[in-house]
Amino acid sequence: MDKSEATAMTGAPAAGLSRTRAEKRRLTRWHASGAHLLISAGIAAAMLALMLMVWYPPPLFQAAGGNDLALILIGVDVVIGPLLTLIVFKPGKWGLKFDLAAIAVFQLAALLYGAHIIFLARPAFIVFVKDRFEVVSAVELRPERLAAARFEQFRRAPWTGPMLVGGEWPNDRAEQQKLLDANLAGEDLQHFPKYYVPYADSRREILAKADPIARVREIEPAAGKIIDEWLAKSGVAERDVRHLRLRARHGWVAVLIDRQTAQPVKMLLIEKP
């Protein structure tokens, strides 16, 4: 073997090592933070899709406070995690793997906690109460009250989106008094699943309480305008729908129901504080 061949053989590993080191040097904190941001944004987008498509279907996303919860989740998951990576990342830094692992654990814990809160706060039932709809979240339903429901399907909070149910006012005076007492504490029929009945069973009462759209224009012009805009876009005839209000934690929603079946046709956000 001549001298030139020996030099080539010994120089090859050194050149490869130099390229590896150069590649490591090119991986900056901005690259690491950007990659972290993309991963976090993907996770947040998946969570947001779950909220919008399952737990908080619009307009309940706004009316039930889902958008506020989503902003908190995004703030923690999408902003804080990548920002911490930007601060601590330095190629070749001693303890870098530990720092990144700690950030990942913190971010995962925050994500799981946020997802748990969002899950508990999800709308569980949309209940017809007297002359309106009320949204009750899963966290508002005590386990013992769910267990007391007369119908099996109401003994657990749904996982796949809010369930539309009817509410039946009790005939027993003692039960009526209990409801009145609960009302003083800020609770109403929707907080007691034992008064829930299948939605179809309340159809006549719901239709009797629903207003024609002309009536809405008279008493709530702003709501009437929003409804008229939707009717014009959708092509649904005004005579085919009736209106009831839905009260949620963060706003009022106009519920347009079929004038014969009482099934919801459209929900429109009217007011959000």
How would you summarize the topology of this molecule?
Layout: H1 3-26, H2 29-55, H3 60-63, H4 66-88, H5 96-120, E1 123-129, E2 132-137, H6 143-147, E3 163-167, H7 173-184, E4 196-198, H8 203-209, H9 213-219, H10 221-234, E5 241-248, E6 251-258, E7 264-271
Parallel strand pairs: 1-3, 2-5
Antiparallel strand pairs: 1-2, 3-4, 5-6, 6-7
Helix pairs in contact: 2-4, 4-5, 9-10
Structural notes for this entry:
The chain has 273 residues and is α/β, with parallel strands linked by helices. The protein folds into two domains: 3-120, no CATH class; 123-271, no CATH class. The protein is built from ten helices and seven strands. The chain has helices spanning 3-26, 29-55, 60-63, 66-88, 96-120, 143-147, 173-184, 203-209, 213-219, 221-234, and strands at residues 123-129, 132-137, 163-167, 196-198, 241-248, 251-258, 264-271. It has a seven-stranded mixed beta sheet. The longest helix is centred in the N-terminal third of the chain and has 27 residues, at 29-55. It is elongated. The termini are far apart. The relative contact order is 0.10. The mean pLDDT is 88.
